[in-house]
Amino acid sequence: MKTEEAKALLEKYYAGTSSVEEESQLEAYLQKPDIPEEFYAAREEFFYYGKFRNEEAPLSLETKLLDEIATKRKPGGKILNWFSPTGIAAAIAFLVVGFGIGRFSIEDSKEPTEVDALREEVAHIKQIMALSLLEQNSVHDRLKAVAMAADLDTNQDIITALIKTMNTDSNVNIRLASIEALSKFLDQDVVVQSMIDALAKQQSLPVRLELARIMIANREKASLPILEEIIKDGSLDAQVKEDITKGIQTITTGI
Amino acid sequence: MKRSKTLILLTLLLIACNMAQAQQESFTIELSEPGEVGSLKVDVTDNPIKVVGENRRDVEIVIIDRKNKNRNPSFFFDFLENRNRIYITDRGRAKGIALEIKVPKEFELGIETTFGDEIDISSVSGNIEVNAHEGNITIAGGNGSAVLHTNNGDINATYNALSEKYPSYLSSIHGNVRLVLPTGYGASVIIDSFNKKVDSDFKLELDYSQGRRSYDEGVARKINGGGPRVVLKNFYGRIEIREN
What we know:
The complex is a heterodimer of chains A (255) and B (244). In chain A, 69% of the residues lie in helices and 0% in strands. Chain A is an all-alpha fold. Chain A is globular, with a radius of gyration of 25 Å. Chain A starts with a helix and ends with a helix. Chain B has two domains: 22-104, no CATH class; 127-244, no CATH class. In chain B, the strands form two sheets. Chain B has an eleven-stranded mixed β-sheet with strand order 5-6-2-8-10-12-14-20-16-19-18, with no helix packed on it. Chain B has a ten-stranded mixed β-sheet with strand order 1-4-7-3-9-11-13-15-21-17, with no helix packed on it. Helix content of chain B is 8%, strand content 52%. Chain B has one helix at 2-20, and strands spanning 23-30, 38-44, 49-54, 58-65, 77-82, 85-90, 97-104, 107-113, 118-122, 128-133, 136-144, 146-150, 155-162, 168-172, 177-181, 187-193, 198-200, 205-206, 220-223, 229-234, 239-243. The N and C termini of chain B lie far apart (60 Å). Chains A and B meet through helix 7, helix 9 and helix 11 of A and strand 12 and strand 20 of B.
């Protein structure tokens, strides 16, 4: 990376707009021993915060965040008894007002409401939690993170983090879970390509099998050279070889 | 002739006695924060491992040389305790030596063995991670999250309760995956069987809340209204969900 590019990335990082991938690039750059002196302060600061990535988040953090979400969901927190006279009156009032709003604001229905904003905020908090948990040492935290990420809508940071997990996590179940989570985003070229790359590089049999299954089910022609290479492996289990061979035929014939 | 026969018999008897008396050594490791939940991490190449949860505040490690090769079994292992975290690693392949580890009932476990034929865990409440590669994994009286994988062995996990906080994930390539839960227990299960060999004592209802996968629809199920999330996955074996 050139100095100018690093500067631009650093600016994005400070502005809080950098993606996970960009931060990884920046991290790699700042780790180099021969960076210009003007980056020394940034390096110190970057790794000062970076070292906390390996610290386990206090167990209370998640509870606090979830409490905060719950509080925001229920402002006031007072429960109305719908069967009391006040409740019935309120229900009728809601119906009338609701009918009115529905009738006169259909054209404005695409405007973001407070509920939408709240939903977005909750999704954002979940995303932060998922990305943070993925960096944890505990396999249970990381599995939880993948499950959370799988429930989120398409998001580039989440996809990048899941691809990294699929390729590098030390636990085979977490790699499998991240593949399952990524399979929701097969409409994105970057996801399909990352799976094809992983199929070529991964040595773990279950991971390869899972990726091959997806490629076959998705009739992914670009994966054919890799699948053909895999079945040439003399040490491959006979049953696995047979299934992948059938899969190659399925992709080739499209049936 | 009669004398030589007696001598042979006596020799065989001595060998048999010697084999029966497997050499074993026992070590007790004090926890630096007794009474607090600790964890055990075992990373060895080729040893059957048994872990038992007991009412105790320390950890006992028993090393048993089943082959009795007149070797010092403890020579093959290193132990380390740091802030209630216990690490056991081997110094190379020590075939024929088994580990029996007694831990407090509430303990976290992380166990990995490359060629070990059996990992057997009982009466431990806490999250468990096991990667057996080739061997079988058996868990009895579990309570917590289970992240278990073996390439060629069977998984047989009997749980009193699964963790609400953390999902569980049980997978095998060629072996069977069997999860046993108490009668009436609710769980949200993703059943992913490549060859569709699934058997359940529980009624499996479709669970749309867990989403569907584009390449293999309809695998998310709930039992007894749903509950903690668990993935059961295998490629060439069977998946069973049994009532206890």
